[in-house]
Amino acid sequence: MAENPKLKILREKAMKLPLTPGVYIMKNKDKKIIYIGKAKKLKNRVSQYFGSQNAHSTKVRKMVENVDDFDYILTDSEFEALVLECSLIKQNMPKYNILLKDDKGYSYIKVTSNPWGKISACFRKDDPEAFYLGPYTGNFSVTNSVEEACEIFRLPSCNKVFPRDSGKGRPCLNYFISKCSAPCAGKISREDYEENLRQAVEFLKGGSAETLKNLREEMEETAENLEFEKAAKIRDRIKSIERIGSRQKVVVDGSINEDVFAIAQSEEKACLAVLSFREGLLVSTEHFIIDKSENLPDTRQELITSFYSMERQIPPLVVVDGEVTDSELVSQWLSEKRGKKAQIFRPQRGEKAKVSEMCLNNAAQKLGEYLGRKGSETAALDELAKLLGLSKTPEYIESYDISHTAGSDNVAGMVVFKIGRPYKSAYRKFSIKGFDGQDDYGSMREVISRRMNRYEEEKESGEGFGKLPDLILLDGGQGQVNAVKPVIEAFGYDVPVFGMVKDSKHRTRAIADGGEEIAINSSRKAFTLVSSIQEEVHRFAITYHKKKHSKSNIGLTLTKIEGIGEKKAAMLLKEMKTLTRIKNSTVEELSNIKGISEKDARNIVAYFKTEK
Q: Shortest CA distance to 41 belongs to which of 92, 75, 83?
């Protein structure tokens, strides 16, 4: 790993910092923020980064290698520094901070505001007239809660709209099994329905324990007032809540609201597991795979602040499986965000210690599953590296294929396999621009040349085209390899290039290295991987070609119309998308398109009218 040539300058700058709390912001040559941290004493903390690199972990050394400059913001206290750090990390998502990716999205409980309101689960707030509860993580628990509330308070779960559909039919089965009050058949008054809806919302807001307490008080009050029929209805509702509650397994004390964090580690990776309990019930489980930690207390702190920066509900108790750096400070931050006291707690014995152990077991299980999948993929990559004589395992593979129709509409597709799996966000398409006609070798040279030029432009980013592959696989034989190797060598890089040779049935047969073919059938794992790559790059390239060829044919059709050249044909296609839509458009619709005159529009309509 190359040492940062600016280390001395950066250390001198760090030594001038004050011994006060603050936030430091590391930037690379492009002035992009790559790391944000806080410190009780800025001078001491920041200067450590630019001293001896032997004391740092691999991740920190890699970060320091990319630092070109740093900024800092002074704060009045270490707590203010923590608040500012969390805010800046959330805004900038720096590459070297621990960033938990929350890809599940959030769920909401929607309550419509019309007189006969309804409750449902949804993923976004798209009705300004409705009332929403949330956001919540985990759609499953939200859907379950809505179903329970509707069943307990006998609210309709159908698609009927009231009062529009009131009194227009017979009640469904749910009415006869006491799961719906049948407003569709006029079986409930509007006042009673709205009271049921209000209680259902309170149930969803406060949970079953709070609702049961309120209902029991109400039942006693109505009984004292000799309203026995109403008291009996409330009694039945209490029984419904208790019956539904008994279906769930109570794992901890029924009054407990807490999140439990635990980390399991291997030699390379770690897994954070989070178990969320509400009223003693396990309502959600989450896990996140991260790089191995060399300082678990610091990592726990980063994980907790990152987790709750994602707009999650903060419980009064956060249980952890080990020490947390500045735990009192983080507890204060959680309390500020929650609006009530929140505490970090590390149990030593008892029920909470057992739950913490259960969370750790979950983390270990998820990590084992992840490493198991990775293990089989790494085995295939290791086998491929050995077969091809590579110096290291090709974890980042790019593959290219050319597609055309008799030399027209030449295109290329590039797919990426990262650690043995398709990495679709890195896929790219190329339209061949250097020549017309059929020349697969020339096309491949152009594509690789353009790709390497993009690397020169973006290599500071280390992402996308700014990252060199460990291996390039071309769909083709020795000719393609020999065409491409000189291009890469001219840029001064040493990237292994091989071709994927097919048999008469278009299946992978061997690998070409530019001089001879390497048999691959006997290496089962490597053969399966290369076959998958070849099929995927062929699919991707031919799909792009078909799309372009289709547009090309439409363009040719349009240029047959008087006054319509390639430029106007492109405008029409961009605006109208399909030939069918163009055919069915009026003169007025067509003449509203930029660049298309009324005369052009009349010619288009007349052309397709004659064609019909």
A: 75
pLDDT of residue 249: 44
- Say which amino acid occupies 443: S
What's the pLDDT at 561?
82
Asked if 499 and 512 count as a contact pair (C-beta separation under 8 A), the reply is: yes
Q: Which backbone phi and psi does 493 adopt, to 5 degrees?
A: -120, 155
Same domain (yes/no): 431, 541: yes
CATH number of the domain within which 356 lies: 3.30.420.10
Residue 163: is the preceding peptide bond cis (ω within 30°)? yes
| Phi and psi, residue 530, nearest 5° | -65, -40
Q: Give how many domains the chain has, as a whole number.
A: 5
* Rounded-to-integer distance, Cα 413 and Cα 120, Å: 44
Beta carbons of 292 and 268 less than 8 angstroms apart: yes
Provide the greatest CA pair distance for the chain: 99
Residue 139 and residue 70 share a domain: no
Question: Are 515 and 598 contained in the same domain?
Answer: no
Residues 36/38/44/46 CA torsion (nearest 10 deg): 10
pLDDT of res. 191:
86
What is the pLDDT at residue 262? 93
Give the long-range contacts of residues 361-365, CB within 8 A, separation 24 or more. 362/262, 362/273, 362/275, 362/285, 362/287, 363/262, 363/263, 363/264, 363/271, 363/272, 363/273, 363/287, 364/264, 364/271
Residues ≥6 apart with Cβ < 8 Å to 74? 18, 20, 21, 22, 42
Q: With a cut of 50, list the residues of the chain below it in pLDDT.
A: 1, 103, 244-250
- Tell me the C-alpha distance between 304 and 320, whole Å: 10
The pLDDT tens digits of the residues spanning 362-418 come to 888 888 888 876 777 778 888 898 889 888 889 899 999 998 766 567 889 999 999
Name the strand (E) or helix (H) holding 510. strand 508-512
If asked whether residues 358 and 496 sit together in one domain, one would say no
CB 497, CB 481: distance < 8 Å: yes
In angstroms, the Cα distances linking 143 to 41, 110, 259, 284 are 48, 11, 21, 13
Q: DSSP state, 216?
A: H
The C-alpha torsion from 579 through 584 and 590 to 593, rounded to 10°, is -50
pLDDT in tens, 69-102: 999 999 999 999 999 999 899 888 898 888 776 5
